[in-house]
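Team,

Forwarding the record for the chain on the shared tracking sheet. I've put the sequence and predicted structure together so nobody has to dig through attachments.
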Amino acid sequence: MYENILVTGGTGLVGNALNSISDIYAPTKFIFAGSKNCDLTRLDETVDYVRECKPDAIIHLAAIHGSIDFGSRCPATLLRDNVIMDLNILEAARINNIKKTIMTLSTGMYPGDAPIPLKEESVHQGYPHDSSYSYAFAKRLIDPSIRAYRSQYGMCVIGLITNGIFGENADFRHESSIMLAALIRRFYENKDTDEKISVWGDGSPVREYTYAKDIARAFMWCMNNYDSEQILNIGSTEEHSVTDVADMIAEIMGIDPNRKQFDTTKPVAISKKSSDNSRFINISNFEYTPFREGLKNSIEYFSANYNDPSKIKLV
């Protein structure tokens, strides 16, 4: 059990989810840090901030990410800033003698032609999909970084691989939202019109989605129970196609699903990237929230708080 845990990216989706369930981990105290608290791309500022917070553990959730369109426009930003932040956190943890650090990876880093389901051993066995190559390589670098810092400095640092995360506090901004959040916003903003509702691509890609509160619980389980250089897939393996997700959103909102219209001029990502979470499940017996239940919670939260900029990120 850790007394004080610093959570970078603490104002993001998973950070907010962890904050909402933090009481169950009492007496552990959490420090939820956002970009306004510290510029993690600056090593001196990161080291000083960690020193001031005096945590005995760090959960590093902060990352630069966004839609396929954002990735195609800003690949250097995605690569540079994520790599710098990750290494700065590891250096700050080393310099400040942090007892344990969790680094966050993504299934988006796996090779585009990796065998399905995706196993942790496949991470470096091929080139990632072109639609997210810079973000993918930044996340891949975390794996050897963990090995290097454990080997040279004896640090307790682990890496957890997430997949499609969704929940009540998702980023719904046009330029940075991922597919599911973008669809929720698009359907909601057009629910009282007769207009067709655009769905990017052809609807065929199949994705795994994990409720943010489940990701938060999985991180805390690993914080208290796992210590190895072996990175872990920790996301749910429940899958749905983009078409199925759009239809489910429409049904929950009371919208005719036939109003959706596929925009095939938009990029289509890799068709399927199912993951193998058996390593994690075998040691944790973890149970996930069913996708539809989490989706309903997310839509209800979005609908109730649409006009409150303090709760919903729209711009």
